[in-house]
Design goal:
Blueprint: H1 4-17, E1 23-28, H2 40-48, E2 52-53, E3 57-59, E4 62-68, E5 82-87, E6 92-98, E7 107-113, E8 119-125, E9 131-136, H3 160-169, H4 174-178, H5 189-199, H6 212-231, E10 273-277, E11 280-284
Antiparallel strand pairs: 1-7, 2-4, 3-4, 4-5, 5-9, 6-8, 7-8, 10-11
Helix pairs in contact: 1-6, 3-6, 5-6
Protein backbone atom coordinates (compact mmCIF):
# COMPACT_ATOMS: atom_id res chain seq x y z
CA UNK A 1 0.00 0.00 0.00
CA UNK A 2 1.17 3.58 -0.56
CA UNK A 3 2.80 5.10 2.50
CA UNK A 4 3.28 8.69 3.63
CA UNK A 5 5.60 9.87 0.81
CA UNK A 6 3.39 8.46 -1.93
CA UNK A 7 0.24 9.94 -0.41
CA UNK A 8 1.92 13.32 0.13
CA UNK A 9 2.93 13.42 -3.55
CA UNK A 10 -0.73 12.89 -4.49
CA UNK A 11 -1.88 15.51 -1.95
CA UNK A 12 0.42 18.14 -3.44
CA UNK A 13 -0.87 17.41 -6.91
CA UNK A 14 -4.49 17.67 -5.81
CA UNK A 15 -3.81 20.94 -4.02
CA UNK A 16 -2.26 22.36 -7.16
CA UNK A 17 -4.85 21.22 -9.66
CA UNK A 18 -8.24 21.10 -7.96
CA UNK A 19 -8.19 23.30 -4.83
CA UNK A 20 -10.73 26.11 -5.13
CA UNK A 21 -12.76 24.40 -7.85
CA UNK A 22 -16.48 23.74 -7.47
CA UNK A 23 -17.98 20.35 -8.28
CA UNK A 24 -20.57 20.41 -11.06
CA UNK A 25 -21.20 16.67 -11.10
CA UNK A 26 -19.91 13.48 -9.52
CA UNK A 27 -20.43 10.12 -11.19
CA UNK A 28 -19.96 6.80 -9.38
CA UNK A 29 -19.20 4.04 -11.89
CA UNK A 30 -18.61 1.16 -9.47
CA UNK A 31 -20.40 0.69 -6.11
CA UNK A 32 -17.34 -0.73 -4.35
CA UNK A 33 -15.57 2.59 -4.81
CA UNK A 34 -18.02 4.18 -2.32
CA UNK A 35 -18.65 1.18 -0.06
CA UNK A 36 -17.28 3.14 2.91
CA UNK A 37 -19.85 5.87 2.28
CA UNK A 38 -23.00 4.92 4.23
CA UNK A 39 -25.42 6.55 1.80
CA UNK A 40 -24.16 4.82 -1.35
CA UNK A 41 -23.33 6.26 -4.74
CA UNK A 42 -26.26 8.64 -5.18
CA UNK A 43 -25.78 10.22 -1.77
CA UNK A 44 -22.03 10.52 -2.35
CA UNK A 45 -22.59 12.36 -5.62
CA UNK A 46 -25.25 14.61 -4.10
CA UNK A 47 -23.01 15.62 -1.22
CA UNK A 48 -20.22 16.67 -3.60
CA UNK A 49 -22.33 18.54 -6.14
CA UNK A 50 -22.11 22.29 -5.66
CA UNK A 51 -19.33 22.03 -3.12
CA UNK A 52 -16.01 23.84 -3.48
CA UNK A 53 -12.93 21.71 -2.83
CA UNK A 54 -10.47 23.33 -0.45
CA UNK A 55 -6.75 22.63 -0.08
CA UNK A 56 -6.03 18.90 0.15
CA UNK A 57 -4.87 17.68 3.56
CA UNK A 58 -3.09 14.58 4.83
CA UNK A 59 -2.35 12.75 8.03
CA UNK A 60 -0.03 9.79 7.69
CA UNK A 61 -1.31 7.62 4.82
CA UNK A 62 -4.73 9.29 4.75
CA UNK A 63 -5.67 12.24 2.58
CA UNK A 64 -8.86 14.22 2.41
CA UNK A 65 -10.45 17.11 0.57
CA UNK A 66 -12.35 19.56 2.80
CA UNK A 67 -15.57 20.74 1.18
CA UNK A 68 -17.16 24.17 1.38
CA UNK A 69 -20.35 25.51 -0.15
CA UNK A 70 -19.87 28.09 -2.91
CA UNK A 71 -19.87 31.73 -1.82
CA UNK A 72 -23.02 32.22 -3.91
CA UNK A 73 -24.92 29.79 -1.66
CA UNK A 74 -24.10 30.97 1.84
CA UNK A 75 -27.47 29.71 3.10
CA UNK A 76 -25.93 26.22 3.32
CA UNK A 77 -22.91 27.34 5.36
CA UNK A 78 -24.07 25.35 8.39
CA UNK A 79 -23.46 22.17 6.41
CA UNK A 80 -19.89 23.04 5.39
CA UNK A 81 -18.03 20.74 7.82
CA UNK A 82 -17.59 17.84 5.42
CA UNK A 83 -14.60 16.22 3.71
CA UNK A 84 -14.01 13.62 1.03
CA UNK A 85 -11.74 10.99 2.53
CA UNK A 86 -9.55 9.09 0.07
CA UNK A 87 -8.42 5.54 0.76
CA UNK A 88 -6.09 4.41 -2.03
CA UNK A 89 -5.84 0.76 -0.96
CA UNK A 90 -3.53 -1.41 -3.03
CA UNK A 91 -4.08 0.19 -6.41
CA UNK A 92 -6.15 3.36 -6.09
CA UNK A 93 -5.16 6.41 -8.12
CA UNK A 94 -6.49 9.96 -8.01
CA UNK A 95 -5.78 11.42 -11.43
CA UNK A 96 -6.38 14.87 -12.90
CA UNK A 97 -7.13 14.22 -16.55
CA UNK A 98 -8.31 16.26 -19.55
CA UNK A 99 -12.05 15.87 -19.98
CA UNK A 100 -11.38 14.61 -23.51
CA UNK A 101 -9.02 11.83 -22.36
CA UNK A 102 -10.31 8.27 -22.88
CA UNK A 103 -11.69 6.60 -19.78
CA UNK A 104 -9.25 4.35 -17.95
CA UNK A 105 -10.17 0.67 -17.90
CA UNK A 106 -10.66 0.72 -14.14
CA UNK A 107 -12.27 4.15 -13.78
CA UNK A 108 -14.53 4.07 -10.69
CA UNK A 109 -15.48 7.70 -9.94
CA UNK A 110 -15.47 10.85 -12.08
CA UNK A 111 -15.74 14.39 -10.71
CA UNK A 112 -16.44 17.26 -13.12
CA UNK A 113 -16.08 20.93 -12.24
CA UNK A 114 -18.10 24.03 -13.14
CA UNK A 115 -15.20 25.93 -14.69
CA UNK A 116 -13.57 26.05 -18.13
CA UNK A 117 -10.18 24.57 -17.16
CA UNK A 118 -10.91 21.41 -19.13
CA UNK A 119 -9.76 18.87 -16.54
CA UNK A 120 -11.61 16.49 -14.23
CA UNK A 121 -10.74 14.35 -11.22
CA UNK A 122 -10.83 10.58 -11.68
CA UNK A 123 -10.54 7.79 -9.15
CA UNK A 124 -9.09 4.70 -10.82
CA UNK A 125 -8.72 1.44 -8.91
CA UNK A 126 -7.82 -1.87 -10.53
CA UNK A 127 -8.36 -4.05 -7.45
CA UNK A 128 -11.21 -2.01 -5.92
CA UNK A 129 -9.71 -2.17 -2.42
CA UNK A 130 -9.69 1.63 -2.15
CA UNK A 131 -12.46 4.17 -2.33
CA UNK A 132 -13.83 7.62 -1.54
CA UNK A 133 -16.34 8.60 1.13
CA UNK A 134 -17.79 11.78 2.62
CA UNK A 135 -17.48 12.35 6.38
CA UNK A 136 -18.22 15.01 8.94
CA UNK A 137 -15.19 16.82 10.30
CA UNK A 138 -14.06 16.81 13.92
CA UNK A 139 -13.32 20.15 15.65
CA UNK A 140 -9.68 19.59 14.63
CA UNK A 141 -10.68 19.46 10.97
CA UNK A 142 -10.15 15.72 10.49
CA UNK A 143 -12.79 13.45 8.95
CA UNK A 144 -14.35 11.64 11.91
CA UNK A 145 -13.37 8.24 10.46
CA UNK A 146 -9.67 8.95 11.07
CA UNK A 147 -9.88 10.88 14.34
CA UNK A 148 -7.91 8.08 16.04
CA UNK A 149 -4.93 8.34 13.68
CA UNK A 150 -1.77 9.76 15.26
CA UNK A 151 0.25 12.57 13.75
CA UNK A 152 3.06 11.54 11.43
CA UNK A 153 6.77 12.33 11.93
CA UNK A 154 6.76 14.96 9.18
CA UNK A 155 3.94 16.85 10.90
CA UNK A 156 5.32 20.04 12.55
CA UNK A 157 3.13 19.28 15.58
CA UNK A 158 4.38 15.72 16.05
CA UNK A 159 5.39 15.31 19.70
CA UNK A 160 8.72 13.49 19.77
CA UNK A 161 8.84 13.20 23.56
CA UNK A 162 5.34 11.75 23.81
CA UNK A 163 6.10 9.25 21.05
CA UNK A 164 9.33 8.09 22.69
CA UNK A 165 7.59 7.59 26.02
CA UNK A 166 4.68 5.71 24.44
CA UNK A 167 7.07 3.57 22.41
CA UNK A 168 8.79 2.23 25.50
CA UNK A 169 5.47 1.58 27.26
CA UNK A 170 3.96 -0.25 24.29
CA UNK A 171 5.34 -3.69 25.28
CA UNK A 172 5.60 -4.84 21.71
CA UNK A 173 8.32 -5.21 19.09
CA UNK A 174 9.84 -2.27 17.30
CA UNK A 175 8.44 -2.86 13.81
CA UNK A 176 4.94 -3.49 15.15
CA UNK A 177 5.21 -0.16 16.96
CA UNK A 178 6.31 1.66 13.80
CA UNK A 179 3.27 0.31 11.94
CA UNK A 180 0.83 1.20 14.73
CA UNK A 181 -1.05 4.13 13.19
CA UNK A 182 -2.45 5.16 16.57
CA UNK A 183 1.13 5.65 17.80
CA UNK A 184 2.82 7.11 14.72
CA UNK A 185 1.17 7.37 11.33
CA UNK A 186 2.47 7.20 7.80
CA UNK A 187 5.11 4.50 8.27
CA UNK A 188 4.37 1.31 6.37
CA UNK A 189 6.27 -1.88 5.64
CA UNK A 190 8.74 -0.37 3.17
CA UNK A 191 9.88 2.60 5.24
CA UNK A 192 9.86 0.62 8.48
CA UNK A 193 12.36 -1.82 6.99
CA UNK A 194 14.44 1.06 5.65
CA UNK A 195 14.50 2.93 8.97
CA UNK A 196 15.36 -0.25 10.91
CA UNK A 197 18.21 -1.03 8.50
CA UNK A 198 19.62 2.46 8.94
CA UNK A 199 19.33 2.15 12.73
CA UNK A 200 20.87 -1.37 12.72
CA UNK A 201 17.86 -2.74 14.60
CA UNK A 202 16.18 -6.10 14.10
CA UNK A 203 12.45 -5.89 13.45
CA UNK A 204 11.66 -8.15 16.45
CA UNK A 205 13.61 -6.06 18.96
CA UNK A 206 11.31 -5.49 21.99
CA UNK A 207 10.51 -1.82 22.47
CA UNK A 208 11.00 -2.18 26.23
CA UNK A 209 14.70 -2.95 25.65
CA UNK A 210 15.28 0.00 23.34
CA UNK A 211 17.31 2.74 25.08
CA UNK A 212 15.97 6.24 24.54
CA UNK A 213 18.99 7.37 22.45
CA UNK A 214 18.43 4.44 20.09
CA UNK A 215 14.73 5.27 19.85
CA UNK A 216 15.60 8.88 19.04
CA UNK A 217 17.97 7.63 16.34
CA UNK A 218 15.29 5.37 14.87
CA UNK A 219 12.75 8.20 14.72
CA UNK A 220 15.32 10.35 12.96
CA UNK A 221 15.98 7.65 10.39
CA UNK A 222 12.25 7.24 9.76
CA UNK A 223 11.99 10.97 9.08
CA UNK A 224 15.06 10.98 6.86
CA UNK A 225 14.04 8.05 4.70
CA UNK A 226 10.54 9.41 4.14
CA UNK A 227 11.84 12.87 3.30
CA UNK A 228 14.25 11.34 0.80
CA UNK A 229 11.46 9.23 -0.71
CA UNK A 230 9.26 12.30 -0.94
CA UNK A 231 11.98 14.10 -2.84
CA UNK A 232 12.08 11.22 -5.32
CA UNK A 233 8.32 11.21 -5.83
CA UNK A 234 7.76 8.14 -3.64
CA UNK A 235 8.39 4.46 -4.24
CA UNK A 236 6.80 2.84 -7.30
CA UNK A 237 7.36 -0.86 -7.92
CA UNK A 238 4.81 -0.91 -10.74
CA UNK A 239 2.49 1.47 -12.58
CA UNK A 240 -0.07 1.54 -9.75
CA UNK A 241 1.60 4.09 -7.45
CA UNK A 242 1.55 7.36 -9.37
CA UNK A 243 0.96 11.05 -8.83
CA UNK A 244 -2.05 12.92 -10.20
CA UNK A 245 -0.37 13.18 -13.63
CA UNK A 246 0.22 9.43 -13.79
CA UNK A 247 3.98 9.65 -13.16
CA UNK A 248 5.76 7.06 -11.02
CA UNK A 249 8.22 7.82 -8.24
CA UNK A 250 11.74 6.40 -8.33
CA UNK A 251 12.86 5.99 -4.71
CA UNK A 252 12.82 2.20 -5.22
CA UNK A 253 16.26 2.70 -6.82
CA UNK A 254 17.60 3.95 -3.48
CA UNK A 255 16.21 1.28 -1.15
CA UNK A 256 18.73 -0.36 1.18
CA UNK A 257 16.57 -3.14 2.63
CA UNK A 258 13.09 -3.63 1.21
CA UNK A 259 12.90 -6.02 -1.75
CA UNK A 260 16.65 -6.83 -1.68
CA UNK A 261 16.60 -10.49 -0.64
CA UNK A 262 19.97 -12.22 -1.37
CA UNK A 263 21.52 -8.96 -2.57
CA UNK A 264 24.59 -7.69 -0.69
CA UNK A 265 24.01 -5.34 2.22
CA UNK A 266 25.03 -1.84 1.20
CA UNK A 267 26.88 -1.51 4.49
CA UNK A 268 28.70 -4.82 5.10
CA UNK A 269 28.16 -6.94 1.97
CA UNK A 270 26.29 -9.76 3.74
CA UNK A 271 23.37 -11.15 1.67
CA UNK A 272 20.11 -9.58 2.78
CA UNK A 273 17.39 -11.86 4.11
CA UNK A 274 13.60 -11.87 3.92
CA UNK A 275 11.32 -13.40 6.53
CA UNK A 276 7.51 -13.72 6.55
CA UNK A 277 6.04 -11.29 9.05
CA UNK A 278 2.36 -10.54 9.81
CA UNK A 279 1.20 -11.51 6.29
CA UNK A 280 3.99 -9.33 4.92
CA UNK A 281 7.75 -9.65 4.61
CA UNK A 282 10.59 -8.15 6.59
CA UNK A 283 13.92 -7.50 4.89
CA UNK A 284 17.07 -7.16 7.01
CA UNK A 285 20.80 -7.75 7.17
CA UNK A 286 21.59 -10.72 9.44
CA UNK A 287 24.94 -9.20 10.36
CA UNK A 288 24.04 -5.53 10.86
CA UNK A 289 20.63 -6.22 12.38
CA UNK A 290 21.20 -9.11 14.73
CA UNK A 291 18.02 -10.61 16.19
CA UNK A 292 17.34 -10.51 19.94
CA UNK A 293 18.22 -13.72 21.75
CA UNK A 294 14.60 -14.82 21.99
CA UNK A 295 14.19 -14.69 18.17
CA UNK A 296 15.47 -17.64 16.14
Amino acid sequence: MPELPEVEVVRRGLERWIAGRTVAEAEVLHPRAVRRHPGGGEDFAARLTGRTIQAARRRGKYLWLPLAVPMTDASDASDAGLSVLGHLGMSGQLLVQPESAPDEKHLRIRVRFDDALGTELRFVDQRTFGGLSVHENTPDGLPDAIAHIARDPLDPEFDDAAFLTALRLRRTTVKRALLDQSLISGVGNIYADEALWRAKLHYERPTATLPRPRAVELLGHARDVMNEALGAGGTSFDSLYVNVNGESGYFDRSLDAYGREDEPCHRCGTPMRRRPWMNRSSYFCPRCQRPPRTVS
